[in-house]
Amino acid sequence: MSLNRTDVTAAMETALSKVLDRPVTELSGQTRLFDDLHLDSTTMLEMLMELEDSLGLEVDPEELEADDFETVDTFTDFALTQLEPRSAA
Prior knowledge:
The chain is mainly alpha-helical and 89 residues long. It has helices at residues 5-20, 41-55, 72-83. The chain is globular, with a radius of gyration of 12 Å. InterPro entries: ACP-like_sf (IPR036736), PP-bd_ACP (IPR009081). Residues 6-83 form the Carrier domain. This is Phosphopantetheine-binding protein.
């Protein structure tokens, strides 16, 4: 299954709505996750777990960088990289 930016953003809106217990819609690429949506480390982890379920996203906590969670765009880039089919070496 190949996902694109729109798929990831839609999944983020669904996950964030569930985690924050309020509707989160119309995210833009420039929406800042911590500053605009007021996420903290706990809600960010909860969002990641939701995305693991909905997208099959697998995240190694060792690979997480703060920059990846700055905006919707930076997180989408990170998620798409994680979702790329891994070729067997």
